[in-house]
Amino acid sequence: MTLDEALSKTVLDKDDLVFLLGLTDPRDVQRLHDAAYAAKCRHVGNVAYYRGLIEFSNICVKNCLYCGIRRGNENVRRFDTPREDILAMARWCHEQGYGSVTLQSGERTDAAFAEHVEGLVRDIKKIGGGGLGITLCAGEQSEETYRRWFAAGAHRYLLRIETSRPELYAALHPGDGMHVWKNRYNCLRVLGKIGYQVGTGVMIGLPGQTLGDLADDILFFQTIDAAMIGMGPYVVHKDTPVGQAVLASGENSDECRQKRLLLGLNMIAVTRLALKDVNIAATTALQALHPEGRELGLKAGANILMPIVTLPRFRRDYQLYEGKPCINESSEDCRNCLERRVRSAGDSVGWGRWGDSPHFARCSQ
Ligand code: 5AD
Ligand code: SF4
Protein backbone atom coordinates (compact mmCIF):
# COMPACT_ATOMS: atom_id res chain seq x y z
CA MET A 1 0.00 0.00 0.00
CA THR A 2 1.26 3.50 -0.74
CA LEU A 3 0.57 6.62 1.28
CA ASP A 4 -1.31 8.11 -1.68
CA GLU A 5 -3.59 5.09 -1.83
CA ALA A 6 -4.31 5.14 1.89
CA LEU A 7 -4.96 8.90 1.96
CA SER A 8 -7.31 8.74 -1.03
CA LYS A 9 -9.71 6.30 0.66
CA THR A 10 -12.91 7.55 2.28
CA VAL A 11 -13.39 4.43 4.40
CA LEU A 12 -10.31 3.10 6.19
CA ASP A 13 -10.09 -0.58 7.11
CA LYS A 14 -7.86 -2.04 9.82
CA ASP A 15 -4.89 -2.51 7.47
CA ASP A 16 -5.10 1.13 6.33
CA LEU A 17 -5.28 2.30 9.93
CA VAL A 18 -2.23 0.24 10.97
CA PHE A 19 -0.28 1.49 7.95
CA LEU A 20 -1.05 5.16 8.65
CA LEU A 21 -0.49 4.90 12.41
CA GLY A 22 2.94 3.39 11.83
CA LEU A 23 4.31 6.18 9.62
CA THR A 24 7.62 7.53 10.92
CA ASP A 25 9.38 9.13 7.94
CA PRO A 26 9.08 12.91 8.62
CA ARG A 27 7.78 13.67 5.11
CA ASP A 28 5.13 10.96 5.31
CA VAL A 29 4.14 12.07 8.79
CA GLN A 30 3.80 15.65 7.57
CA ARG A 31 1.54 14.53 4.72
CA LEU A 32 -0.62 12.50 7.11
CA HIS A 33 -0.98 15.41 9.53
CA ASP A 34 -1.71 17.86 6.68
CA ALA A 35 -4.41 15.56 5.31
CA ALA A 36 -5.96 15.30 8.78
CA TYR A 37 -5.83 19.09 9.24
CA ALA A 38 -7.60 19.50 5.88
CA ALA A 39 -10.24 16.97 6.99
CA LYS A 40 -10.71 18.92 10.22
CA CYS A 41 -11.22 22.19 8.27
CA ARG A 42 -13.74 20.46 6.04
CA HIS A 43 -15.76 18.65 8.71
CA VAL A 44 -15.55 20.76 11.88
CA GLY A 45 -13.74 23.97 10.85
CA ASN A 46 -10.40 25.31 11.99
CA VAL A 47 -11.82 26.60 15.25
CA ALA A 48 -10.57 25.42 18.64
CA TYR A 49 -13.24 25.17 21.33
CA TYR A 50 -12.31 25.50 24.97
CA ARG A 51 -13.46 23.33 27.84
CA GLY A 52 -12.18 24.96 31.04
CA LEU A 53 -10.80 22.00 33.03
CA ILE A 54 -11.64 22.08 36.74
CA GLU A 55 -9.86 19.16 38.41
CA PHE A 56 -11.85 19.49 41.60
CA SER A 57 -10.68 16.51 43.67
CA ASN A 58 -7.92 13.91 43.51
CA ILE A 59 -9.61 11.50 45.91
CA CYS A 60 -10.02 8.22 44.06
CA VAL A 61 -11.25 4.77 45.08
CA LYS A 62 -9.56 3.15 42.10
CA ASN A 63 -6.02 1.90 41.81
CA CYS A 64 -5.22 1.95 38.08
CA LEU A 65 -1.65 0.72 37.79
CA TYR A 66 -0.44 3.65 35.65
CA CYS A 67 -2.03 6.67 37.34
CA GLY A 68 -0.24 9.02 39.73
CA ILE A 69 -3.30 9.67 41.90
CA ARG A 70 -4.22 6.01 42.32
CA ARG A 71 -5.55 5.12 45.76
CA GLY A 72 -2.36 3.27 46.65
CA ASN A 73 -0.04 6.23 46.09
CA GLU A 74 0.63 7.51 49.58
CA ASN A 75 2.86 10.33 48.39
CA VAL A 76 -0.14 12.30 47.17
CA ARG A 77 -1.74 14.97 49.33
CA ARG A 78 -5.47 14.52 48.80
CA PHE A 79 -7.70 17.54 48.21
CA ASP A 80 -11.34 18.34 47.67
CA THR A 81 -11.93 21.83 46.31
CA PRO A 82 -14.46 23.83 48.34
CA ARG A 83 -17.74 24.19 46.52
CA GLU A 84 -17.63 28.00 46.41
CA ASP A 85 -14.20 27.87 44.74
CA ILE A 86 -15.51 25.49 42.07
CA LEU A 87 -18.43 27.80 41.34
CA ALA A 88 -16.08 30.80 41.21
CA MET A 89 -13.88 28.97 38.69
CA ALA A 90 -16.93 28.18 36.55
CA ARG A 91 -18.02 31.84 36.69
CA TRP A 92 -14.52 32.85 35.67
CA CYS A 93 -14.71 30.52 32.66
CA HIS A 94 -18.01 32.06 31.64
CA GLU A 95 -16.63 35.60 31.95
CA GLN A 96 -13.65 34.64 29.82
CA GLY A 97 -15.91 33.37 27.07
CA TYR A 98 -14.98 29.71 27.51
CA GLY A 99 -17.99 27.94 26.00
CA SER A 100 -17.87 24.99 28.39
CA VAL A 101 -16.37 23.59 31.54
CA THR A 102 -15.20 20.06 32.28
CA LEU A 103 -15.52 18.90 35.86
CA GLN A 104 -12.97 16.17 36.44
CA SER A 105 -12.08 14.22 39.56
CA GLY A 106 -10.91 10.90 40.84
CA GLU A 107 -13.63 8.29 41.10
CA ARG A 108 -15.95 8.07 44.11
CA THR A 109 -19.20 6.17 44.21
CA ASP A 110 -20.59 7.17 47.62
CA ALA A 111 -23.95 8.89 47.91
CA ALA A 112 -22.45 12.14 49.21
CA PHE A 113 -20.32 12.46 46.07
CA ALA A 114 -23.27 11.86 43.73
CA GLU A 115 -25.18 14.56 45.54
CA HIS A 116 -22.23 16.95 45.60
CA VAL A 117 -21.72 16.70 41.83
CA GLU A 118 -25.46 16.99 41.18
CA GLY A 119 -25.56 20.23 43.19
CA LEU A 120 -22.49 21.59 41.42
CA VAL A 121 -23.97 20.90 38.00
CA ARG A 122 -27.24 22.54 39.01
CA ASP A 123 -25.47 25.67 40.26
CA ILE A 124 -23.09 25.90 37.29
CA LYS A 125 -26.11 25.61 35.02
CA LYS A 126 -27.48 28.82 36.56
CA ILE A 127 -24.39 30.81 35.62
CA GLY A 128 -25.07 33.20 32.74
CA GLY A 129 -28.56 31.80 32.22
CA GLY A 130 -27.37 28.31 31.27
CA GLY A 131 -24.69 29.60 28.93
CA LEU A 132 -21.94 27.19 29.96
CA GLY A 133 -21.77 23.72 28.49
CA ILE A 134 -20.99 21.12 31.18
CA THR A 135 -18.88 18.03 30.60
CA LEU A 136 -18.40 15.56 33.42
CA CYS A 137 -15.47 13.22 33.83
CA ALA A 138 -15.90 11.39 37.12
CA GLY A 139 -15.53 7.76 36.20
CA GLU A 140 -17.83 4.77 36.41
CA GLN A 141 -21.14 5.42 38.14
CA SER A 142 -24.53 3.72 38.44
CA GLU A 143 -27.16 4.44 35.81
CA GLU A 144 -29.16 6.27 38.45
CA THR A 145 -26.28 8.63 39.22
CA TYR A 146 -25.62 9.30 35.54
CA ARG A 147 -29.32 10.10 35.13
CA ARG A 148 -29.37 12.48 38.09
CA TRP A 149 -26.36 14.38 36.75
CA PHE A 150 -27.91 14.55 33.28
CA ALA A 151 -31.19 15.85 34.70
CA ALA A 152 -29.22 18.48 36.63
CA GLY A 153 -27.82 19.84 33.35
CA ALA A 154 -24.66 17.95 32.36
CA HIS A 155 -24.84 17.05 28.70
CA ARG A 156 -21.50 15.52 27.91
CA TYR A 157 -19.59 12.74 29.67
CA LEU A 158 -16.02 11.68 29.14
CA LEU A 159 -15.04 8.13 30.08
CA ARG A 160 -11.97 6.73 28.45
CA ILE A 161 -12.03 3.05 27.65
CA GLU A 162 -8.20 3.30 28.06
CA THR A 163 -7.75 0.43 25.58
CA SER A 164 -10.36 -1.43 23.59
CA ARG A 165 -8.60 -4.77 24.20
CA PRO A 166 -9.91 -6.32 27.44
CA GLU A 167 -6.71 -8.39 28.00
CA LEU A 168 -4.52 -5.29 27.87
CA TYR A 169 -6.98 -3.48 30.14
CA ALA A 170 -6.66 -6.35 32.60
CA ALA A 171 -2.85 -6.08 32.54
CA LEU A 172 -3.03 -2.37 33.42
CA HIS A 173 -5.50 -2.65 36.29
CA PRO A 174 -5.68 -4.65 39.50
CA GLY A 175 -7.70 -7.87 39.23
CA ASP A 176 -9.77 -6.99 42.28
CA GLY A 177 -13.19 -7.01 40.64
CA MET A 178 -13.33 -3.20 40.74
CA HIS A 179 -11.51 -2.60 37.46
CA VAL A 180 -13.45 -4.52 34.84
CA TRP A 181 -13.35 -3.64 31.12
CA LYS A 182 -16.89 -4.84 30.53
CA ASN A 183 -18.27 -2.58 33.27
CA ARG A 184 -16.59 0.41 31.69
CA TYR A 185 -17.97 -0.54 28.31
CA ASN A 186 -21.46 -0.85 29.80
CA CYS A 187 -21.12 2.62 31.32
CA LEU A 188 -20.43 4.03 27.84
CA ARG A 189 -23.56 2.32 26.53
CA VAL A 190 -25.69 3.64 29.41
CA LEU A 191 -24.37 7.19 28.95
CA GLY A 192 -25.34 7.13 25.28
CA LYS A 193 -28.77 5.72 26.10
CA ILE A 194 -29.43 8.52 28.61
CA GLY A 195 -28.67 11.11 25.94
CA TYR A 196 -25.22 12.35 26.89
CA GLN A 197 -22.76 13.27 24.18
CA VAL A 198 -20.33 10.49 24.91
CA GLY A 199 -16.60 11.00 24.84
CA THR A 200 -14.07 8.24 25.14
CA GLY A 201 -10.42 7.65 24.38
CA VAL A 202 -7.33 5.64 25.08
CA MET A 203 -3.75 6.00 26.23
CA ILE A 204 -1.23 5.67 23.44
CA GLY A 205 2.14 3.95 23.71
CA LEU A 206 1.23 1.72 26.64
CA PRO A 207 3.54 -1.21 27.37
CA GLY A 208 2.21 -4.22 25.48
CA GLN A 209 0.10 -2.14 23.09
CA THR A 210 0.49 -2.73 19.34
CA LEU A 211 -0.42 -0.69 16.25
CA GLY A 212 -3.16 -3.27 15.69
CA ASP A 213 -4.58 -2.42 19.14
CA LEU A 214 -4.62 1.28 18.30
CA ALA A 215 -6.33 0.58 14.97
CA ASP A 216 -8.93 -1.47 16.87
CA ASP A 217 -9.34 1.45 19.28
CA ILE A 218 -10.32 3.70 16.36
CA LEU A 219 -12.76 1.07 15.10
CA PHE A 220 -14.12 0.86 18.65
CA PHE A 221 -14.76 4.64 18.69
CA GLN A 222 -16.72 4.14 15.48
CA THR A 223 -18.68 1.19 16.82
CA ILE A 224 -19.86 2.97 19.96
CA ASP A 225 -20.54 6.11 17.92
CA ALA A 226 -18.48 8.42 20.14
CA ALA A 227 -19.09 12.15 19.65
CA MET A 228 -15.84 13.21 21.33
CA ILE A 229 -12.41 11.66 21.60
CA GLY A 230 -9.94 12.53 24.35
CA MET A 231 -6.73 10.59 24.14
CA GLY A 232 -3.08 11.17 24.76
CA PRO A 233 0.27 9.45 25.04
CA TYR A 234 0.99 7.36 28.09
CA VAL A 235 3.44 9.25 30.32
CA VAL A 236 5.37 7.59 33.13
CA HIS A 237 4.65 8.35 36.78
CA LYS A 238 7.36 6.93 39.00
CA ASP A 239 5.06 6.14 41.94
CA THR A 240 3.05 3.61 39.93
CA PRO A 241 3.63 -0.06 39.12
CA VAL A 242 3.44 0.49 35.34
CA GLY A 243 5.72 3.54 35.55
CA GLN A 244 8.28 1.59 37.57
CA ALA A 245 8.23 -1.33 35.13
CA VAL A 246 8.71 1.00 32.17
CA LEU A 247 11.59 2.78 33.91
CA ALA A 248 13.24 -0.55 34.82
CA SER A 249 13.04 -1.80 31.24
CA GLY A 250 14.75 1.34 29.91
CA GLU A 251 11.67 2.23 27.86
CA ASN A 252 11.55 5.83 29.02
CA SER A 253 14.53 7.28 27.17
CA ASP A 254 14.06 10.53 25.25
CA GLU A 255 13.81 8.45 22.12
CA CYS A 256 11.01 6.30 23.57
CA ARG A 257 9.13 9.37 24.78
CA GLN A 258 9.39 11.00 21.36
CA LYS A 259 8.08 7.79 19.80
CA ARG A 260 5.05 7.94 22.08
CA LEU A 261 4.52 11.58 21.15
CA LEU A 262 4.64 10.79 17.44
CA LEU A 263 2.26 7.88 17.92
CA GLY A 264 -0.08 10.16 19.90
CA LEU A 265 -0.10 12.69 17.05
CA ASN A 266 -0.58 10.01 14.39
CA MET A 267 -3.46 8.62 16.42
CA ILE A 268 -5.17 12.05 16.39
CA ALA A 269 -4.59 12.38 12.65
CA VAL A 270 -5.84 8.90 11.76
CA THR A 271 -8.85 9.24 14.07
CA ARG A 272 -9.74 12.50 12.31
CA LEU A 273 -9.47 10.84 8.90
CA ALA A 274 -11.56 7.87 10.02
CA LEU A 275 -14.24 9.56 12.16
CA LYS A 276 -14.34 12.93 10.35
CA ASP A 277 -16.89 15.10 12.19
CA VAL A 278 -16.23 14.27 15.86
CA ASN A 279 -14.58 16.50 18.45
CA ILE A 280 -10.99 15.49 19.22
CA ALA A 281 -9.01 17.01 22.09
CA ALA A 282 -5.36 18.01 22.00
CA THR A 283 -4.63 16.87 25.56
CA THR A 284 -2.06 18.18 28.03
CA ALA A 285 -0.25 14.82 28.00
CA LEU A 286 1.05 15.78 24.53
CA GLN A 287 2.63 18.82 26.08
CA ALA A 288 4.25 16.75 28.81
CA LEU A 289 6.33 15.20 26.03
CA HIS A 290 6.94 18.29 23.88
CA PRO A 291 6.72 22.03 24.63
CA GLU A 292 4.52 22.52 21.57
CA GLY A 293 2.62 19.27 22.00
CA ARG A 294 -0.83 20.80 21.96
CA GLU A 295 -0.21 22.97 18.86
CA LEU A 296 1.06 19.86 17.13
CA GLY A 297 -2.18 18.16 18.17
CA LEU A 298 -4.25 20.95 16.59
CA LYS A 299 -2.16 20.71 13.44
CA ALA A 300 -2.73 16.96 13.33
CA GLY A 301 -6.51 17.36 13.40
CA ALA A 302 -7.61 18.04 17.00
CA ASN A 303 -10.16 20.83 17.58
CA ILE A 304 -10.71 20.91 21.35
CA LEU A 305 -8.47 22.33 24.08
CA MET A 306 -8.93 21.95 27.80
CA PRO A 307 -7.24 24.93 29.47
CA ILE A 308 -6.51 24.09 33.10
CA VAL A 309 -8.60 26.17 35.49
CA THR A 310 -7.84 24.14 38.63
CA LEU A 311 -6.84 26.31 41.60
CA PRO A 312 -3.07 26.85 41.45
CA ARG A 313 -2.67 25.55 45.01
CA PHE A 314 -4.03 22.15 43.99
CA ARG A 315 -2.38 21.74 40.57
CA ARG A 316 0.69 19.99 41.92
CA ASP A 317 -1.52 17.39 43.60
CA TYR A 318 -3.36 16.46 40.42
CA GLN A 319 -0.57 14.80 38.52
CA LEU A 320 -1.71 11.64 36.78
CA TYR A 321 1.70 11.57 35.12
CA GLU A 322 5.01 13.36 35.50
CA GLY A 323 5.97 16.52 33.66
CA LYS A 324 2.38 17.74 33.51
CA PRO A 325 2.55 21.30 32.17
CA CYS A 326 0.93 24.39 33.70
CA ILE A 327 1.31 23.41 37.35
CA ASN A 328 3.04 26.69 38.19
CA GLU A 329 0.69 28.80 36.08
CA SER A 330 -2.51 30.62 36.91
CA SER A 331 -5.74 30.33 34.92
CA GLU A 332 -4.99 33.74 33.34
CA ASP A 333 -1.55 32.53 32.24
CA CYS A 334 -3.16 29.45 30.67
CA ARG A 335 -5.75 31.49 28.84
CA ASN A 336 -3.19 33.80 27.24
CA CYS A 337 -0.70 31.09 26.48
CA LEU A 338 -3.29 28.86 24.84
CA GLU A 339 -4.68 31.55 22.59
CA ARG A 340 -1.14 32.10 21.28
CA ARG A 341 -0.82 28.38 20.66
CA VAL A 342 -4.12 28.22 18.79
CA ARG A 343 -3.16 31.13 16.53
CA SER A 344 0.24 29.65 15.82
CA ALA A 345 -1.48 26.47 14.60
CA GLY A 346 -3.53 28.57 12.13
CA ASP A 347 -6.82 28.21 14.05
CA SER A 348 -9.08 30.66 15.87
CA VAL A 349 -10.79 30.24 19.25
CA GLY A 350 -14.53 29.53 19.33
CA TRP A 351 -15.15 32.05 22.13
CA GLY A 352 -18.49 31.75 23.89
CA ARG A 353 -19.69 28.76 21.89
CA TRP A 354 -20.39 25.25 23.13
CA GLY A 355 -18.78 23.69 20.13
CA ASP A 356 -20.80 20.46 20.05
CA SER A 357 -19.55 18.10 17.41
CA PRO A 358 -21.45 18.11 14.10
CA HIS A 359 -21.40 14.34 14.55
CA PHE A 360 -23.60 14.53 17.64
CA ALA A 361 -25.97 17.02 15.99
CA ARG A 362 -26.24 14.78 12.93
CA CYS A 363 -26.87 11.57 14.87
CA SER A 364 -29.29 12.91 17.46
CA GLN A 365 -31.75 14.40 14.97
N1 5AD B 1 -0.24 8.85 31.36
C1 5AD B 1 -1.17 9.35 30.52
N2 5AD B 1 -2.48 9.41 30.80
C2 5AD B 1 -2.88 8.96 32.01
N3 5AD B 1 -4.10 8.89 32.57
C3 5AD B 1 -3.97 8.37 33.80
N4 5AD B 1 -2.68 8.09 34.05
C4 5AD B 1 -1.97 8.45 32.95
C5 5AD B 1 -0.60 8.39 32.58
N5 5AD B 1 0.32 7.90 33.41
C6 5AD B 1 -5.32 9.25 31.86
C7 5AD B 1 -6.29 8.07 31.77
C8 5AD B 1 -7.54 8.60 32.46
C9 5AD B 1 -7.39 10.07 32.32
C10 5AD B 1 -8.19 10.88 33.28
O1 5AD B 1 -6.01 10.28 32.50
O2 5AD B 1 -6.56 7.80 30.40
O3 5AD B 1 -8.73 8.13 31.87
FE1 SF4 C 1 -8.51 7.10 39.65
FE2 SF4 C 1 -8.86 7.80 37.06
FE3 SF4 C 1 -6.40 7.65 38.11
FE4 SF4 C 1 -7.79 5.40 37.66
S1 SF4 C 1 -7.07 6.87 36.09
S2 SF4 C 1 -6.62 5.88 39.54
S3 SF4 C 1 -9.87 6.08 38.15
S4 SF4 C 1 -8.01 9.08 38.72
Summarize the SSE layout with pairings.
Layout: H1 3-8, H2 14-21, H3 26-43, E1 47-57, H4 83-96, E2 100-105, H5 111-126, E3 133-137, H6 143-152, E4 156-158, H7 166-171, H8 181-194, E5 197-200, E6 203-204, H9 211-223, E7 228-233, H10 241-248, H11 254-275, E8 279-282, H12 284-289, H13 293-299, E9 304-305, H14 312-315, H15 331-344, E10 348-349, H16 358-363
Helix pairs in contact: 2-9, 3-11, 5-6, 6-8, 9-11
The protein binds 5'-deoxyadenosine and iron/sulfur cluster.
Residues 66-67, 160, 162, 203, 232, 234-235, 237, 285, 320-321 line the site of 5'-deoxyadenosine (5AD).
* Main β-sheet description: 10 strands, parallel
Helix-residue proportion: 40-55%
> What bound compounds does this protein have?
5'-deoxyadenosine, iron/sulfur cluster
Q: Estimate the mean pLDDT confidence.
A: 95
What is the annotated CATH architecture?
Alpha-Beta Barrel
Low-confidence blocks of residues: none
The CATH C-level name is: Alpha Beta
Tell me the fraction of residues in β-strands, as a range. Answer: 5-15%
The helix-and-strand class reads alpha/beta
Helix and strand element order: HHHEHEHEHEHHEEHEHHEHHEHHEH
- Structurally, how many domains make up the residues? 1
- Count up the helices: 16
Q: What overall form do the CA principal axes indicate?
A: globular
Q: Please tell me how large the radius of gyration is.
A: 19 Å
Tell me the span between the first and last alpha carbons. 38 Å
